[in-house]
């Protein structure tokens, strides 16, 4: 009972696809975000005060990413002062350009 060449080719393709397709499916995507930093009057609990907002929101918008994704985040500061943004739960590749 021999194994035909057709069966060997099928087996080879199956094994190859088992390794290649998951890499393609789980490969990260590039996600783009634009953040516009502005001072805006915000009313909370019947009190209005000037607050720093990101895209008109406080707190700022959520960033969605999966492991392997690449994030390109453009931040434009329209406030006259320097602004610090605190990035929580991010791992940065400082060598990436």
TrEMBL record:
Pfam families tied to this protein: Cu-oxidase_3
InterPro entries attached to this UniProt entry: Cu-oxidase-like_N (IPR011707), Cu-oxidase_fam (IPR045087)
Species assigned in the record: Cucurbita argyrosperma subsp. sororia
Highest taxon, organism lineage: Eukaryota
Domain Plastocyanin-like: 38-87
Single GO molecular function: oxidoreductase activity
Signal sequence region: 1-27
Keywords associated with the record: Signal
Official protein name in the record: Laccase-17
């Amino acid at each position: 009972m021999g194994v035909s060449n057709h069966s060997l080719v099928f087996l080879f393709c199956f094994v190859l696809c088992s390794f290649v397709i998951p890499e393609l499916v789980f490969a990260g995507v590039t996600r783009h975000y634009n953040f516009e930093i502005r001072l805006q009057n915000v009313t909370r609990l019947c009190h209005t005060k000037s607050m720093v907002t990101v895209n008109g929101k406080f707190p700022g918008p959520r960033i969605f990413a999966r492991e392997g994704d690449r994030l390109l985040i453009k931040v434009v500061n329209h406030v006259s002062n320097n602004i610090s943004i605190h990035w929580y739960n991010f791992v940065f590749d400082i060598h990436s350009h």
